[in-house]
Amino acid sequence: MARPTSVFVCQECGAVYPKWSGRCDACLAWNTLIEEAAAADGHPGRERGHARRLAFVPLDGEGGPLARRGTGLDELDRVTGGGLVPGSAILIGGDPGIGKSTLLLQVAARLSGSMTAVYISGEEAIGQLRLRATRLGVRTAPVQLAAATAVNEIAASLDVAKAADVVVIDSIQTMFIDGLESAPGTVAQVRASAQALIRIAKRRGFVLLLVGHVTKEGTIAGPRVLEHMVDAVLYFEGERGHQFRILRAVKNRFGPTDEIGVFEMTDAGLQEVRNPSALFLAERESQVPGSAVFAGIEGTRPVLVEIQALIAPSPLGTPRRTVVGWDSGRLAMLLAVLEARCGMSFGAADVFLNVAGGFRVAEPAADLAVAAAIVSAASGNALPPDTVVFGEVGLAGEVRAVARADARLKEAAKLGFTQAILPSRRAPADGTLDMRLHRVGLLSELLTTLKPPAPEAVPARKVSHG
């Protein structure tokens, strides 16, 4: 019986089927099966050959610390764990126009002074790259440029001794291999192109930086296996209306994950932000109800951001719950806890929540700061301007302890904050950082803490009737 000459591959998850169907059984996505040419054994990308035995080595062998290459950008070095590791592959994803190509061109220009840096673009011509380099002020940097999309040509140019030390591919979705009949950007092409480039990077020992497009959900386009193939995955976050950009590590084989680097987009490119807490709080209005400063931790770095809340009467039958920079499901849970445990009511009010500066907060330690902002907005009483808040809130209304409270308080004290509202469990001792600590064990205690003191009674003036 003749083997099939084509198979159908899901463009979302990479599952292979012998015939077309409307829905992928693996990821349950509709209309994602695309016909692709099959290899000799009926599966794309699989080769036949004689198996050879593996040479096993002991675990306790020779090996020292990894020799990293600093990029000259401290924020990028922080995210990668101290610099770029030779032979590693790093995938950088982000929305269109967020600054991925700008960042990598700046990195290539900085590294080209001490090593060979190659920038290969599949989306822009050489003239466009030179115009961007002129705008960034790196036109004279000895970066080697090329405009190509054929992986076979790129591999032939890079698979030689000392061809490059750092290689930028912009982007992996534009690359293609001649042996596959599918179009660039499909699962088979992205997987095969990345595998071929990573194999050369491992063999020749150069750093491979891949730019990846993202889908409308914010994940990197192409097969999920692409993120498993590379050594590190970095996401470039930020709103196009804000000048701040956040580079976040979600996977790193050579360093910590959830580390962030903060940049500011300017006319001359991306500039590092040495103290992001001061920048996020620069435009804060301190005496406005509904504002609370959250002391968070991103990777190894403490970051202070402003959380804003607004409570307004709703003209709709179903009140709105609008969230920017936080989890909308967690906001719904927190509102339910405030209603059930603290006696507050939001059934006829719209609730708006915003993390200022385009920053995104993911850790549960922001619960207490969000609750403080909501209570402040509902009561009309502004929090003291020199107060930071952090703590996790449970469904029973308890305030749970969070990690690294000392680091959060130290960062707050450095920026001039003198008070903190924090969980009572495992709280630092008084006088540790010369800050006044308000410990709360239950969410209901937060309302008492935020309630303004009653005015002192003025004695009545005696009136003489003589």
Features of this protein?
3 domains, RecA_ATP-bd, damaged DNA binding, nucleotide-binding, 9-stranded mixed sheet, hydrolase activity, DNA-binding, alpha/beta, 21 strands, Rossmann fold, single chain
Task: Name the beta content range.
Answer: 15-25%
In which order are the strands of the major sheet placed?
Answer: 6-5-7-8-4-9-10-11-12
* Category by helix and strand content: alpha/beta
Largest sheet: 9 strands, mixed
How many beta-strand elements? Answer: 21
Low-pLDDT sequence parts:
41-47
Explain this structure.
By secondary structure, this protein is of the alpha/beta class. The protein folds into three domains: 32 residues; 201 residues, 3-Layer(aba) Sandwich (Rossmann fold), CATH 3.40.50; 169 residues, 2-Layer Sandwich (Ribosomal Protein S5, domain 2), CATH 3.30.230.10. It is 24% helix and 24% strand. The chain contains eleven helices and 21 strands. It has a nine-stranded mixed beta sheet with strand order 6-5-7-8-4-9-10-11-12, with helices on both faces. The chain has a seven-stranded mixed beta sheet with strand order 15-16-14-13-17-20-21. Helix 4 runs parallel beside helix 5 and helix 9 crosses helix 11. The longest helix is centred in the middle third of the chain and has 18 residues. It starts with 5 loop residues before the first strand and ends in a 16-residue tail after the last helix.
